[in-house]
């Protein structure tokens, strides 16, 4: 029964992916075929910067900055979906490609751009967070199923959006008279919200099952450690049927522990929220802001690595240096895109005393560099080599930073507010 249910879920998921293509034009299908990359940790930042660059002539503040929460939901799912849909290894790129293409199509319809980005901003508020299911997803088939159904609903609403935008203008005008655009997608939102509630329920169940399995494994270890063979024999006789599950449980437990260990190691480096100040600065930026800087000889020399490795931009308080820093980050994300190039950043905030400490700045930058490490073992090795622990001082952090930088071909670091 479980196998049949999983098969039905996969078929429904693949069906949603196929249906999306039926509303595309020939050029859009060709464009979709070109989106084959699996999203990585920087993908959302890069893509929203691209959207703003394409809408540079639009008046007002950045609109694409409304989308990261929704897009991050899709990116997180793309990172794990192949665990469930193993027969379709490129599934992550297919999911991300459809969502990305939808956003690109929306940018061509300025009259709808504002309302549709608001719609996806609203959807982002009910999307499951990757951090909530990251360690539970690989070992819970029910959770995998509910997340597939949720993202199938997301792909379906993307299809509806594209379909709506491509209607003849007469039909669009008629729809406008009948009611606002939000009414058009009300059933889609209701379906997505229902799927989101299902995911929340499965998360609770998966957590309970994981806790139960861990308790059973701990009980078994205690029994094995017992010196009384008689007690161990009696326990084994009573629980033969339970012990059949120990192998898979042990494997699931080890997978969860490895994922949790990696997260703990990253958190031991830094838990500082470096993204929020950047997102806030992005929202305040208007199209075209900071482009003058990119034309200066000093910036070009720094960016190309042909001059000083340090570019210092000073100015009075309130002159726009923070907005300028956000523009530089977006520029680097867009222009220097490869697996061997990374941009790390940090915004000092005078209302946050912890952000003003040199050690915390370096810790955050090191974490950004190392969060792409493949495993907990790789992270652990780096931290041990640098003799780093939660109480390490500035010198130890600097040593780890040097080791971390050696992993990359190019590294750009943008720090705002040092002066």
Written overview of the protein:
66% of the residues lie in helices and 3% in strands. By secondary structure, it is mainly α. A two-stranded parallel ribbon has the order 1-2.
Topology (elements, then pairings):
Elements: H1 2-21, H2 26-34, H3 43-54, H4 68-78, H5 91-106, H6 110-124, H7 130-133, H8 141-165, H9 169-178, H10 181-184, H11 186-225, H12 229-238, H13 240-243, H14 246-269, H15 275-284, H16 291-294, H17 297-304, H18 321-335, E1 341-347, H19 358-370, H20 376-385, H21 394-405, E2 410-416
Parallel strand pairs: 1-2
Helix pairs in contact: 1-8, 3-4, 3-18, 4-5, 4-6, 5-8, 8-11, 11-14, 14-20, 15-18, 19-21
What descriptors fit this protein?
419 residues, mainly alpha, two-stranded parallel ribbon, 2 strands, P-loop_NTPase, repeat, NACHT domain-containing protein
Per DSSP, the total helix count is 21
Strand order of the largest sheet: 1-2
> What number is the mean pLDDT?
81
Main beta sheet strand tally, sense and closure? 2 strands, parallel
The general outline is flat
Question: Which range does the strand content fall in?
Answer: under 5%
Which residues sit in consecutive blocks of at least 5 with pLDDT less than 50?
Answer: 235-244
By DSSP, the count of extended strands is 2
What sequence of helices (H) and strands (E) makes up the elements?
A: HHHHHHHHHHHHHHHHHHEHHHE
- The structural class is mainly alpha
Please compute the radius of gyration using only Cα atoms: 25 Å
User: N-to-C terminal Cα separation, in Å?
Assistant: 64 Å
Helix content: 55-70%
Domain DUF7708: 69-206
Keywords: Repeat
Organism: Cephalotrichum gorgonifer
Protein name: NACHT domain-containing protein
């Amino acid at each position: 029964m479980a196998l049949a249910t999983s098969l039905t879920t996969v078929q429904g998921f693949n069906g949603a992916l196929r249906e999306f293509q039926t509303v595309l034009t020939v050029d859009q299908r060709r464009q979709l075929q070109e989106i084959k990359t699996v999203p990585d940790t920087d993908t959302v930042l890069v893509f929203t910067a691209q959207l703003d660059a394409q809408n540079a002539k639009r008046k007002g503040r950045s609109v694409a900055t409304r989308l990261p929460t929704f897009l991050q939901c899709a990116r997180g799912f793309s990172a794990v979906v192949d665990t469930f849909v193993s027969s379709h290894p490129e599934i992550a790129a297919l999911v991300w490609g459809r969502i990305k293409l939808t956003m690109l199509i929306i940018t061509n319809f300025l009259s709808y751009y504002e309302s549709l980005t608001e719609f996806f901003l609203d959807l982002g508020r009910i999307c499951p967070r990757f951090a909530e299911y990251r360690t539970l997803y690989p070992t819970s088939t029910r959770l995998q199923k509910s997340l597939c159904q949720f993202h199938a609903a997301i792909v379906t609403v993307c299809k509806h959006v594209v379909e709506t935008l491509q209607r003849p203008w007469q039909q669009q005008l008629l729809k406008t008279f009948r009611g606002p655009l939000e009414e058009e997608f009300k059933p889609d939102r209701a379906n997505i919200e229902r799927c989101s509630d299902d995911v929340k329920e499965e998360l609770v169940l998966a957590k309970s099952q994981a806790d139960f399995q861990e308790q059973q494994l701990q009980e078994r270890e205690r029994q094995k450690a017992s010196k009384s063979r008689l007690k161990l024999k009696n326990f084994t006789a009573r629980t033969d049927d339970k012990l059949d599950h120990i192998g898979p449980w042990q494997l699931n437990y080890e997978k969860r522990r490895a994922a949790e260990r990696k997260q703990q190691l990253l958190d031991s480096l830094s838990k500082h929220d470096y993204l929020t100040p950047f997102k806030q600065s992005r929202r305040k930026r208007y199209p075209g802001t900071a482009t003058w800087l990119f034309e200066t000889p000093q910036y070009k020399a720094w960016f190309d690595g042909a001059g000083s490795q340090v570019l210092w931009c000073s100015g009075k308080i309130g002159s726009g240096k923070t907005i300028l820093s956000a523009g530089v980050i977006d520029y680097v994300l867009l222009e220097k895109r490869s697996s061997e190039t990374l941009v790390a950043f940090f915004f000092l905030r005078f209302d946050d005393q912890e952000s003003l400490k040199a050690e915390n700045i370096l810790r955050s930058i090191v974490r950004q560099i190392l969060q792409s490490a493949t495993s907990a073992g790789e992270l652990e090795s780096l931290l041990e080599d640098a003799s780093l622990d939660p109480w390490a001082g500035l010198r130890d952090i600097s040593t780890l930073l040097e080791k971390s930088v050696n992993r990359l071909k190019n590294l750009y670091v943008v720090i705002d507010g040092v002066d």
